Amino acid sequence: HVQLVESGGGSVRAGGSLTLSCAATGYTWSAYCVAWFRQPPGEKREGVAAISPADGNTYYTESVKGRFTISHDNVKNILYLQMDNLKPEDTGMYLCAAEPRLRGYCDTYLPYTSWGQGTQVTVS
Question: CA 12, 18, 19 angle in degrees (round to 5)?
């Protein structure tokens, strides 16, 4: 049973930084894709970044390229999202997700079926 628990959200001024964490249990990290999504207030959920822990390949949505960095600690099985130069439009509930890696790549368009509860990020 996959369990994902996010932490690290908070309120920050524009231009600031936050690091989100997602502690994962219940699966073999090398066989999964893991990703971050966000849901701004009143809007649909959108993919932010994904990583294949097995080979380190990453994917970012265009709006966060150069500002966000996704990484995975393969020893602790923790997913991170380092967010720098935050903008008000980055505000939202941030959720991590996991899905078996059945293709040769990981991105945010896969049908992720395991989700955390989310952590709120507010940028003003």
Answer: 160
For tokens 């380190």, name the residue: 56
Range 56-61 contact pairs with CB under 8 angstroms and sequence separation of 24 or more: 57/105, 57/106, 59/35, 59/105, 59/106, 59/107, 59/108, 61/108
pLDDT, tens only, 58-102: 999 999 999 999 999 999 999 999 999 999 999 999 999 999 999
Question: How many helices (H) and strands (E) in the chain?
Answer: 0, 11
Q: How far is CA 122 from CA 43, 86, 89, 102, in A?
A: 15, 9, 9, 34
3-state DSSP helix/strand/coil % of the chain, to nearest 5: 5, 50, 45
- CA dist., res. 52 & res. 41, Å (int): 29
Contact 17, 82 (CB under 8 A): yes
Cα 20–25–31 angle (5° rounding)? 95
